[in-house]
Amino acid sequence: FGLLGFAILSGLLFARFTRPSAKIEFSRSALVAPYGTGWALMFRLANLRRHDFTDVHAVASLALWEEDKGVRRRRFYQLSLERTFIIFMPLHWVIVHPITDESPLRGFTEEAFRASDPELVCLVSGHDETFAQTVHAKISYDSSEIVWGGRFRDMYFAETERVSIDLDRLHLFESVDPPAGV
Fold this sequence. Notes:
By secondary structure, the chain is mostly beta strands. It has two helices and 14 strands. The strands form four sheets. Strands 1, 2, 3, 7 and 10 form a five-stranded mixed sheet that branches. Strands 4, 5, 6, 8 and 9 form a five-stranded antiparallel sheet that branches. Strand 12 and strand 13 (164-165) form a beta hairpin. It is globular and about 70 Å long.
């Protein structure tokens, strides 16, 4: 029984500590930024591993407080994304929710948006080639982490013939004239 117990305990500990993790870093801020001829809610993420993730999917939802017949309620919206999945992610990905007529953000001003106490939540999952398993990462942005009127700065550089990204630039953005309403 001693050897059997030791084998089971060793197996459980090994399984616990060898479980893969996504190693994805998200930008510190989400932005309401210029996009095409309009505006979009966006944030970006980068793969910190030395190998690619494949079959990467993203789902984003937005929680807002809304007034409904004199009653304040928390409403949850699944956001339609420009792209919900990518085949592989070697470098970084900007997740974009275009603010269209169907968007729950349509018609918001910055003040109304802040008053609704928004929270943006995103779940990213992908296949880790090293462990041959699906890994997950999630992020949540509250009102103080959503910048109204910004644009992400470029992350790419090419010192040699290879294009790379500078992870120190993941969080950098520049201010743009904020929209009066979206």
